[in-house]
């Protein structure tokens, strides 16, 4: 498998990034805050309107180093990409599948299958690891319901039915998500998902983790030559990275949700790092955001065995390996798209 | 046979990929998926050449030209010869801007040492055929220079060599027109393949995805 290189996150506002030989130099006013060799980097991600020199943009584009601009709160703004890979053959086939509802459904159902499977095993693992803390029968009931949804999804060939099953599985999973929060319960609770804006600490964390994940997934799809904006489950909508959203279905729970839970349960963050705005929106302070990014980076280095490839890879390469497998399926090397089925 | 359209020319350097593994060639030249190291390498190579005007070096009765762009319409290929040596020869051909008559000999540089199989030869033969077509002459000889042994090997080119190269190129054009990537035939050569991560040859030896899913669901 490919090597996981570092992602450079620039969270200090009002910085300027420029190229000096083979290095990125980060400056704030007259001071140099850091200098990093480009050859170690896979992506650069800036928060809060950092300026970047055209020379550095060019260098990143040439080396396929993802360069992404986010707002301070992690809303995606823009990405710099170079000349796109000449992979029109692959992309045209992707478009053909996307245009055909039934063919789309056959791919989409495996994304959803992955999502529900992973949700089930998140719960099963929790019942095993925290048998004395959890209301086991309650969780087992949800797990059983998820199994049923899975069996349904397995044979669905219609996108609307698929969305229906997916929706009810999500309701089931969300109904016990709060049970998985085992520490700092007064400050961190989950009563349902809200995102525009997030109205509690857990939703703020989830939103931020999803942003980090979507950035990784988008880069992975682009690096294997797929068009992140043309999806199968999520239909075309201008400006929406539909394929990235599709692929996130199977990774959200196992990658981002579990990450957020571990931040809370291991007390790596606390409620002091969150503040509420007048409109009820909950925002993280800079230190907390840094803490989250640090944890994310560490998580990416952890190793797992890829369930289909049966190869030891780091978590950070999971989006890439799934993108690669999707590309191979589209090119006709595989009989189906193999979702990431974690246990 | 009609000449190929210029837009459909294949890269001469692809012959060596094709001989190494057809799938590798298709991944690079049809799908344009290649690993960063290969891409950067080729990139700097091309730049180095582009940055150099055609350097002509005269040595006795030899005229040495580096990085000479060549092509052939009948074969449908284009590429660059590392070195072409033009040797003064009364039986040769005139060159524009030079006095006297010359015979060209392509010299292809290889990093390693001579190999048992003749995988290095095809590329040289294709270059020779390009030169014949561009200079309207008949050639019969080229050289392979091996960096590791610092030794040059004379390569006589026979009719059957040419037929073989033609056949290989026809096959390449066929895949290219169909935009077809052959399935992986995994073997020991995969160990040294720079596209291993993109190709995932083990993948095809694996059970089907359908059975992977079945077995996970029944756990
Ligand atoms: S990994 Fe093996 S099968 Fe795949 S392209 Fe390389 S040499 Fe060919």
TrEMBL record, chain A:
Keywords: Antiviral defense, DNA-binding, Endonuclease, Hydrolase, Magnesium, Manganese, Metal-binding, Nuclease. CDD domains: Cas1_I-C (cd09721). GO terms for molecular function: DNA binding; DNA endonuclease activity; hydrolase activity; metal ion binding. InterPro entries: Cas1, CRISPR-assoc_Cas1, CRISPR-assoc_Cas1_C, CRISPR-assoc_Cas1_DVULG, CRISPR-assoc_Cas1_N. Mn(2+) binds at residues 166, 234, 249. Its cofactor is Mg(2+); Mn(2+). GO terms for biological process: defense response to virus; maintenance of CRISPR repeat elements. Pfam families: Cas_Cas1. Its EC number is 3.1.-.-. Belongs to the CRISPR-associated endonuclease Cas1 family. CRISPR (clustered regularly interspaced short palindromic repeat), is an adaptive immune system that provides protection against mobile genetic elements (viruses, transposable elements and conjugative plasmids). CRISPR clusters contain spacers, sequences complementary to antecedent mobile elements, and target invading nucleic acids. CRISPR clusters are transcribed and processed into CRISPR RNA (crRNA). Acts as a dsDNA endonuclease. Involved in the integration of spacer DNA into the CRISPR cassette. Homodimer, forms a heterotetramer with a Cas2 homodimer. NCBIfam families: cas1, cas1_DVULG. This is CRISPR-associated endonuclease Cas1.
UniProtKB/TrEMBL annotation, chain B:
Keywords: Antiviral defense, Exonuclease, Hydrolase, Iron, Iron-sulfur, Manganese, Metal-binding, Nuclease. Its cofactor is [4Fe-4S] cluster; Mg(2+); Mn(2+); iron-sulfur cluster. One of its GO terms (biological process) is defense response to virus. Mg(2+) or Mn(2+) required for ssDNA cleavage activity. Its EC number is 3.1.12.1. GO terms for molecular function: exonuclease activity; iron-sulfur cluster binding; metal ion binding. Residues 105-200 form the DUF83 domain. The keyword S-adenosyl-L-methionine does not apply. Signal peptide: none annotated. The keyword Manganese applies. It comes from the Bacteria. Belongs to the CRISPR-associated exonuclease Cas4 family. CRISPR (clustered regularly interspaced short palindromic repeat) is an adaptive immune system that provides protection against mobile genetic elements (viruses, transposable elements and conjugative plasmids). CRISPR clusters contain sequences complementary to antecedent mobile elements and target invading nucleic acids. CRISPR clusters are transcribed and processed into CRISPR RNA (crRNA). PANTHER family: CRISPR-ASSOCIATED EXONUCLEASE CAS4, DNA REPLICATION ATP-DEPENDENT HELICASE_NUCLEASE DNA2. This is CRISPR-associated exonuclease Cas4. It comes from Paenibacillus durus (Paenibacillus azotofixans).
